[in-house]
Design brief:
The complex is a heterodimer of chains A (357) and B (362).
Chain A lengths: L2 H6 L27 H15 L11 E5 L2 E10 L5 E2 L2 E2 H14 L4 E12 L4 H18 L2 E10 L7 E11 L15 E4 L5 H9 L17 H10 L3 E5 L5 H13 L2 E5 L7 H10 L13 E4 L4 H9 L8 E7 L6 E4 L5 E3 L13
Parallel strand pairs in A: 5-6, 10-13
Antiparallel strand pairs in A: 1-2, 2-7, 3-4, 5-7, 8-11, 8-12, 9-11, 10-12, 13-14
Helix pairs in contact in A: 3-4, 6-9
Chain B lengths: L9 H14 L4 E7 H9 L2 H4 L4 E8 L1 H4 L2 H11 L4 E5 L13 H6 L3 E4 L3 H10 L4 E8 L4 H14 L4 E8 L1 H10 L7 E5 H7 L5 H7 L3 E4 L3 H17 L4 E3 L11 H10 E8 L3 E10 L8 H4 L15 H5 L31 H9 L3
Parallel strand pairs in B: 1-2, 1-7, 3-4, 3-5, 5-6, 7-8, 8-9
Antiparallel strand pairs in B: 6-11, 10-11
Helix pairs in contact in B: 1-12, 2-16, 7-8, 8-13
Classes of the chains: A alpha+beta (357), B alpha/beta (362).
């Protein structure tokens, strides 16, 4: 302990403990951010109670055998505000989100459920538009919405509309993609520019009045995934970096596989408009949500084939190798900056918050 | 991106770092005053580019960090009242008071809203006449003019339901405190560019003269900071102690005069407590008596609180550049951004949080 401090200390017997209470006894917004607080909630509340071999793999979807088939199964809830945003709406997002979670296991998505929790007062016209948009997205993705549910809550008890979708698909025989499969030397490929969705949403929210042409990247990724798998089966894992952004997905993979991951700043594609908005708001694009991008970790000798396949698909045109797995501290993600220095890419404690100045 | 990329050019940066290495004949300790500058230094690893003899220490210029615990507790008290809409910039919501933060207050039912400008809070007051709307007026000279303008506007409209909880602090008194300390190690300052964009840099000349210390007004990009460092080292090596302006694309000698005028109209200089440091005379702003109807402390008749800082925290020493975050035994163990013991671990721009985020293993 520094001597200056030691002198300032009164009699230890009079010590109190005014340390801020770290434990949250109520849910705060940060618990839904996909960052450290979300991870803590899983660790403390759900995993100890639900633990089983399928869940404990902690992938974006569960994969298990039924009969002779490997079934992929996943669920996701959508609480986006505003309901309609540049590049999409809550309906198309709810289809794409679940299709993508299935696709990240390599599965061919087949069937979705859709559950709606509508707030009293929601214009039925909006629900028509959203259902129409879901139908179009499902058709484009080749999935059928085969079951559903509708509930209504009192005005003030919801935020217009919440949607939950659950999906199942079939994983090709012999394929096993998992965040725990990554090995030292593997390469990390990103399918395109990051941050579009998060910034498009933020820009269209009330109170933040800046003009931008940024559109959400919301899109179904299973077509791209099929092309990639046709090019090589030596893909270890895939993730779509949604809430929590690229940093959360990389941290999850590094933690699950027990490797370190290093990415290179200059290789991560970010649109100028997104960079500009991030500058203005004091945000880091690494933590901003995407809804139509994926990262794939691939064996080194497969990278060229996979990359070529991605670049020939419209959703992977800007694909690039952004880093690699290495044998450093397990779970640690670092980034080589344009200046040649290295910095840690941490999981955020909660949501990114626009800065004071 | 224009006006940004050229200031992040690795070639220019390494040329400037090389220039510093050529000039420096002995060790120098430099302080960047502003948390935004600390963040850039850590994020780009500027310290690694410089010769080992140049030591950068981090200053007290993070408004979120230096807002006293008492003020956060008061904010939470006000926010919890049934007829109150409490508005704030986003990053104040996660700052823990003595027991809770504003996010937790919101989870417990308080109406706490993030706004991007104090004028948005005035608008909310206009639209909700039956609610009392309070804005958390925090920050250095940078945010003071907009906050002053919000109060001025509310007064002009005679809005009866708007008030501001003011916790404004000023940069020069904090620099003076650091320089007056017998344990001071800082030999040159990078003054905060955004603050100087408002205030100009006339007021730094007294400090430079009185303490014979060079001060360079610096920007926030890596090339800005390296250029400011190179200007400081040149002055130190030549034995000069002047105020110079690296950030001339945003800052001039007199600053933003109309902004200063509205600040002077609405605020007056007052004593302020700084979290982690303590009371500093004439180091902040409060609303003038003419605007007392808009002063949340008076509107809500707040009784003074006194809250102790966690004793293990060495933030007072960190904020004065006398210790590095990693010198603290609690750093990264009992003290992390999720469980901050002290001010500099709270905001992303706090020195401890910046070290934790980018260089935990250094």
């Amino acid at each position: 302990m520094p001597s200056e401090l030691l002198r300032a200390l009164p009699d230890p017997a009079s010590f109190t403990c005014p340390v801020p209470v770290p434990a949250h006894d109520r849910i705060v917004m940060g618990h839904g951010s996909g960052g450290r607080l979300s991870a803590n909630l899983l660790r403390d509340v759900f995993l100890p109670r639900f633990s089983n071999p399928v869940l404990d793999r902690m992938d974006d979807q569960a994969v298990f055998a039924i009969g002779g088939s490997q079934v992929a199964f996943t669920t996701d809830s959508f609480v986006v505000q505003p309901l309609f945003f540049p590049g999409g709406d809550i309906g198309s997002l709810a289809v794409h989100g679940t299709v993508n979670d299935l696709a990240m296991s390599g599965a061919v998505p087949l069937y979705l459920s859709a559950a709606f929790i509508a707030e009293e007062g929601l214009p039925i016209g909006q629900l028509h538009r959203i259902a129409e948009s879901m139908a179009e997205a499902a058709e484009a993705a080749g999935v059928l919405i085969v079951t559903g549910d509708t509930k209504v809550v009192e005005r003030g008890k919801g935020d217009g509309l919440f949607i939950n979708t659950t999906g199942i698909g079939i994983v090709p025989a012999g394929l096993r993609l998992s965040a725990s499969e990554v090995r030292t030397g593997d390469l990390v490929i990103l399918s395109g520019c990051i941050g579009d969705h998060g910034i498009a949403i933020m820009a269209s929210r009330a109170g933040l009045e800046f003009e931008t042409t940024i559109q959400s990247d919301s899109a179904p990724l299973h077509g791209l995934v099929a092309e990639m798998l046709a090019a090589s089966r030596r893909i270890r894992c895939m993730r779509d970096p949604t809430r929590g952004g690229l940093s959360s997905s990389l941290n999850e993979i590094a933690a699950m596989s027990g490797v370190a991951i290093e990415i290179v700043e200059g290789r991560i594609p970010v649109r100028d408009e997104v960079r500009g908005a991030c500058e203005l708001l004091g945000l880091d694009p690494l933590y901003v949500a995407n809804e139509g991008k994926l990262i794939a970790v691939v064996a080194p000798d497969a990278a060229d084939e996979v990359l070529a396949a991605m670049r020939s698909h419209p959703l992977g045109r800007d694909a690039a190798v952004i880093g690699h797995a290495l044998g450093g501290e397990p779970g640690l993600v670092t980034m080589k900056t344009a200046f040649g220095s290295t910095r840690i890419v941490e999981l955020l404690p909660g949501d990114q918050l626009p800065r004071i100045c | 991106m224009k006006y940004v990329d050229e200031y992040r050019d690795p070639g220019i940066a390494s040329a400037l770092a090389g220039k510093v290495a050529l000039m420096a004949t002995r060790p120098w300790v430099l302080m960047e005053v502003c948390g935004g500058q600390t963040h850039t230094l850590m994020r780009y690893g500027i310290g690694d580019l410089l010769p080992q003899d140049i030591e950068l220490v981090h200053g007290p210029g993070c408004p979120v960090c230096v807002t006293p615990l008492e003020m956060i507790d008061q904010a939470i008290l006000i926010a919890g009242l049934p007829d109150v809409i409490f508005t704030s910039y986003g990053d104040m919501l996660r700052v823990p008071g003595s027991r809770r933060d504003l996010f937790q207050a919101r989870a417990e039912g308080a109406d706490v809203r993030i706004v991007y400008s104090p004028m948005d809070a005035v608008k909310i007051a206009r639209e909700n006449p039956s609610q009392r709307v309070v804005f958390f007026g925090v920050g250095f000279e940078t945010t003071a003019p907009a906050n002053a303008m919000a109060v001025w506007q509310a007064a002009r409209e005679g809005l009866p339901n708007f008030s501001m909880l003011v916790s404004h602090v000023l940069v020069p008194p904090a620099m003076r405190l650091i320089l007056e300390s017998p344990a001071n190690r800082v030999q040159g300052f990078i003054a905060p560019g955004h603050v100087c964009a408002i205030m100009g840099f006339r007021e730094y000349e007294d400090l430079a003269r009185e303490f014979q210390v060079p001060i360079v007004v610096g920007g926030f990009e890596p090339v800005d900071l390296l250029e400011a460092i190179s200007m400081l080292v040149a002055q130190l090596e030549e034995g000069r102690a002047e105020v110079e302006n690296q950030y001339s694309r945003s800052v001039n000698y007199f600053g933003n005069v109309p902004a200063q005028a509205v600040m002077r109209d609405v605020f007056q200089v007052s004593d302020r407590k700084w979290r982690g440091i303590g009371e500093i005379g004439d180091s902040g702003l409060r609303l003038r008596d003419e605007y007392s109807a808009y002063d949340a402390e008076r509107v809500f008749r707040l009784a003074p609180l006194h809250v102790e800082e966690p004793r293990e925290c060495i933030s007072a020493l960190v904020l004065q550049g006398r210790r590095k975050p990693v010198d603290c035994e609690a750093f990264g163990k009992r003290c992390t951004p999720l469980t901050p013991l002290g001010a500099p671990m709270v905001s992303a721009e706090g020195a401890c949080a910046a070290w934790y985020q980018y260089k935990r293993h250094a």
